[in-house]
Every structure is written in C-alpha cells, then in structure tokens.
Amino acid sequence: MNTIGYKICNLRKQNNMSQEQLAEKLNVSRQSISKWERDEALPDIYNLESISEIFDVSIDYLVKNISIDDSPKKNKEERERIIKQANIMFIVSIALYFLDVFLLGGFWDIITLIEPIKISLFGVIVLAATILIIYQGFVRDRAKRLFPDSPEAK
Question: Which among 53, 94, 127, 147 is most buried, taking Cβ atoms within 10 Å?
C-alpha cells in the first residue's frame, strides 16, 4: 500500500523538485518534508491541500489508496472531453440535416443526377445525421453514468 509519504516523494521526484524547493513552496522546513516522506509524520490538512494543488492531484489521491487516474481532477478532464465529443456530434448532425433540407429545397435541380441517386444520397445524409444524434445521446448517457456528481448528470 502506498503511503502519503511515498506518494509525496514520488510526486516531488516526478516534478524534479528537491525537498528544499517543496518545503519553500509549503512554507515548512526541509526536515518536515523528509519526515513526511519517511512516514514519521503526516502533513496537516492545509499542507495536504497545498500539496494537491502543487502537484495537480486530489487530496483523495494522497490519503486514499487510489490511482492517480481515479483522482477527481483527471475525472473532470475526461468528463469534459466526453461532453465536448457529444457536442461536436450534435452540431455535425444538425448541420447534416440542414444540408439535406438545402439540397431538397431546390439545389437538387442544379445537380444533374439520376433521380434514384438523388433520393439515395438524401437518405444516406438523413441516416448519418440520425445515427450521430442517437450516438451522441449514448455518449452523454455514458458521461452521466461515469460521473454521477457532474452538473450534466443532474
């Protein structure tokens, strides 16, 4: 099991930071950092909060036995990526519907295609737009299930 001290030490080394540099940022002594890393003492809650901000991890990551990928900050980034993906799919599908309406509304006469090809092309565009609308709904639902505490889930 990874202790708080072990995690602080690893985060500090991953960020190429000395104990002295971390101590300076936290306004504590280098000896305090050394004691934390050797698990001889624990940082107080204010220092834990500062450590989590310095290394961009959650306090949960520091005190619980979870991976860094499970931290709320990483989850927020993933949630935002999924929602952005769903928004893009929605916009593209609406654009496809408008394209179809534009084509149906008279632009077809300019295109000299055989009638069955025009109808097929119209159907393919409608089908693609409909599939995108449905799929983005599944993506949003997935985001709500993965991140139930998010604003989108409420």
Answer: 147
Q: Which amino acid is at 9?
A: C
Residues in the chain: 154
Instruction: For residues 143 and 130, give the distance between their C-alpha atoms in angstroms, rounded to a whole number.
Output: 20
Kindly report the three-state secondary structure assignment for every residue of the chain. CCCHHHHHHHHHHHCCCCHHHHHHHHCCCHHHHHHHHCCCCCCCHHHHHHHHHHCCCCHHHHHCCCCHHHCHHHHHHHHHHHHHHHHHHHHHHHHHHHHHHHHHCCHHHCCCCCHHHHHHHHHHHHHHHHHHHHHHHHHHHHHHHHCCCCHHHC
| Per-residue pLDDT band at 151 (split at 50, 70, 90) | low
Is 0.90 topped by the overall pTM? no
- pLDDT, the chain, mean: 82
- d(C-alpha 57, C-alpha 12), whole Å: 12
Encode pLDDT of 37-50 as tens digits. Answer: 999 999 999 999 99
